[in-house]
């Protein structure tokens, strides 16, 4: 488990760093970013929030645009941002922005050619935390969050692995991917045409039958250009109602799908996670 | 003075917007960004901070990466970010990142081919504020700030036009451009080889003889990779000492030239400007 440091920037008295490592799960080299809050400089082991980004993003978008370091530094939380798919010339790809590299959808692909590298579910769930916890001054307390495709990923990972995460949050998640164009295109390619194989990757279907319950917060912009066709938060809301799930879903008038929306409410999401990470 | 709206994003209860207009001073179409804090929605006229970006930047870098909207929203300050040079196929350019498009250095070029478009000094001083004050709910109270090449621009504009600005600040400014490679290359091209023509664009030389004194704050990262060869804050410090200039120069151990540094201290700079803008 060797990792190579690619960059270091002091930020809010802590450090933003990028690393490259060979990801066995994905069968390729991967880059990730970590924000280490100032508390780690005194040897303190801090909890970790995993952030999953959306379509076309890398490890950089959230770290540069969300304004999260300020609050993570105050709260003493590390943030880890993986890339959004396996990468490289040897890795299968597609011309669309919503399939292939930059669009891993946090699933384990079963269909060729995707199944050779596209195992982002296992990577985020197992390999990455194992590497992080072995390499940095962090505890094994984990929260998970994400945006859009990454909001879908965060919800699915937390719903299927409640023992691994203290809390989950999402901005503008693809909340019911089996029933929207982005999800149907990706799941057909990665998981095949048998739609019964899709349900383990659909937050609304999972939440409807959830028994162990990780506290969840979702923020939606009401002016989001993808709200009605792709995101479908009402399906998640109905699922939470059906199973009595502790979901806090906030709708924000005027906000869209951009990082300006994320930046406006990331403080609230981080303070939500801190409630559980610091217990 | 017609302007075309290109984008709108709600951010911290205010609005980030991009516009295009024909800049007479620059003889080409120009894009700029404005952050309008929530107070403007109630018809309040707010003061304006002009932000000048560094080499290779556009109107977007600061707006996306600095985390400034949060504090501007709280303080009730609009922020305007122009591009860093004239742009377009008809505009002279250079292969280097430090000359031509993306590198206007906030001067009025006197040398061909640059003198046809490169009048960023006049654009930022006159044309842009005139357009902003005619088009948006803002007052004529102005502050100015910038990073690197833009820090140089902000200091020069404030030192030469103290009646136009209530306060000035800079991150990592090119503080003595007549005496560093970036400045010498740009000034030779834009202003010619006669170095006596350069002194009106050198913050350290101007501060040494300043009589009217706009309060100034400068933040420097001690791990800045350009500190010793290009930035030379000690020249500015010596000039302030010689003329009794009200310069607050802060050195921050471990911080570099990146936006992570700017994000870490932009709140302090904005609160500094608010002291004077709100008088």
UniProtKB/TrEMBL annotation, chains A, B:
This protein's record includes keyword Hydrolase:
yes
Q: Which GO BP terms, alphabetically?
A: formaldehyde catabolic process
Listed GO MF terms: carboxylic ester hydrolase activity; S-formylglutathione hydrolase activity
Q: Name the InterPro entries on file.
A: AB_hydrolase_fold, Esterase-like, S-formylglutathione_hydrol
Catalytic activities: S-formylglutathione + H2O = formate + glutathione + H(+)
A GO CC term?
cytosol
Q: Where is the active site?
A: 148, 224, 257
Enzyme Commission number: 3.1.2.12
For whether the record's keyword set contains Hydrolase, the answer is: yes
Enzyme class, first EC level, given as a word: hydrolase
A UniProt-annotated Pfam family:
Esterase
Alphabetically sorted, this entry's keywords are: Hydrolase, Serine esterase
What NCBIfam families does the database record attribute to this sequence?
fghA_ester_D (TIGR02821)
Family classification = Belongs to the esterase D family.
The protein's role, per its UniProt record = Serine hydrolase involved in the detoxification of formaldehyde.
Q: Under what name is this protein listed?
A: S-formylglutathione hydrolase
Organism, scientific name: Microbulbifer thermotolerans
